[in-house]
Write a structure and sequence with these properties.
Length: 157
């Protein structure tokens, strides 16, 4: 009889461990649900913050990313200094995909000036030959910007 009791004790121990495991699994499920709820709440908060940023961006023109990449740098040469001093015109080298309206808005926001006229100069890519190979110098685009009289752009020269 004592041999049979040993098996019964093992069965009762197994049942107890299964019950404990079920309780632990139940707690884990509850904890996992809580963690999932927290993640969902965090995502909602992030979406609200992103929406607030979009509202701020609509009110102001942001100079990050593609818009500031349009305006490369002021073009400095003898001719540009003569134009700047005599006729209140400034020459900027810009991205080839930039338009007059984009550059006008960008300059008005950066330098706080009134732009009256913009002229564009597209220089084509030049061919360079070396033996049998052809390669091209990069093309560029310049804009001559005329601003209202009495205003200046500080270029830091």
């Amino acid at each position: 009889m004592s041999v049979l009791n040993i098996f019964k004790k093992k069965e009762t121990k197994e049942k107890k461990t299964e019950e404990v495991k079920e309780k632990k699994v139940g707690k884990k499920k509850v904890e996992e649900k809580k963690v999932e709820k927290k993640k969902v709440e965090e995502k909602k908060v992030e979406k609200e913050v992103i929406e607030e940023k979009k509202v701020e961006v609509k009110n102001k023109i942001v100079l990050e990313g593609s818009s500031s990449a349009l305006l490369l740098h002021p073009y400095l040469s003898e001719k540009s200094t003569i134009l700047r001093d005599g006729q209140n015109k400034y020459i900027f080298e810009v991205s080839p995909r930039a338009t007059k309206n984009e550059i006008k808005k960008l300059l008005e926001n950066i330098y706080h000036i009134e732009v009256t006229k913009i002229n564009t100069i597209n220089t084509p890519a030049k061919v360079k030959r070396w033996r049998q190979k052809k390669s091209y110098f990069s093309r560029n685009k310049k804009m001559i910007v005329t601003i209202k009289e009495g205003q200046k752009i500080e270029l830091g020269i």
